[in-house]
Amino acid sequence: MSSQPPHNVDLVVLHGADLPPGRERFEDVPGVASVRYATADALPDVLPGAQALFVWELFSEAVTAAWAKADALRWIHAATAGVDNLMFPGLVGSDVVVTNSRGVFDEPIAEYVLGTVLAFAKDLPTTLDLQRRRTWRHRETERVGGRHVLVIGTGPIGRAIARRLAAVGMTVEGAGRTARSDDPDFGTVVATERPVAGSAAAGPFAAALGRADYVVLAAPLTPGTRGLADAALFARMRPGARLINVGRGQLVVERDLVDALRSGRLAGAGLDVFETEPLPADSPLWELPGVIVSPHMSGDVVGWRDELVTLFADNLRRFVGGRELRNVVDKRRGYVSGP
After folding, report:
1. Which residues are catalytic?
2. Domain annotation for the chain: domains and CATH numbers
3. Which residues contact 268 (CB under 8 A, 6 or more apart)?
């Protein structure tokens, strides 16, 4: 963006049922002329003339619908790590800068993944179920150390996951856009590709799937990753392996996942995101053995909303001052540029 500071910035905050906490941290930034708050239905009415937009309503599609009214917009900041809901053609092809909230969710999500691995390995769901039934049943459980995990998605969240899992003795491998053998967090990274159903050929990605006891999805949702985890991918996974998804629900073809679980191909799945949210009451994922369901909360720890506002307020000061913004997204690829 230009180094010339904009003057009298008009800011719009898109929100849902809740407003951002500690709003004075950005309302009082020198150079901000006005702050207007709008829900999705009101956004087209308040967006004209605004230079900055703070998307506080997580995963909202309202910006797409109101895009024609963005006559002065220069910058959008998303209170999320994923920005797939903003990657529509009009915005991608424009000069509007998009930033996200990278860094707020990395470690909490990594801790969630570690907790899910431990819950599977130590069979904690069965322990809790037996406790509720006052049933004493001795069982043997699995080791975590020495197990192999493939993390699909080598961005900041994937890297935090890799570090956490390696710290407990797991062998970690990554899958991303570019293959490499000297990655500081993953060691080896294979190039992600779509397995072909029924194909006998096994490239590096398919081979990595076959080595993994756990496959963790932490990739952004892009045209190339949508539906990546389908029947062909599950067929390449090691029999008895488990899937953990903390990326986006649309990375997984849920009907194929249900089939893989029912057939015993997969031993389990830890799912924090789903194709439809909230997860419909009639989804078989609620009751299938070996499935842990959580309501899109893997990154939401005490104080996370305040951290989001703090990050945005810092970026707003940078925007008003004409300085480089944090967490600029490569709109053509849908991910944050930089290391």
Report:
1. 248, 277, 296
2. 9-104+302-336 (3.40.50.720), 106-293 (3.40.50.720)
3. 120, 242, 243, 261, 289, 290, 291, 292
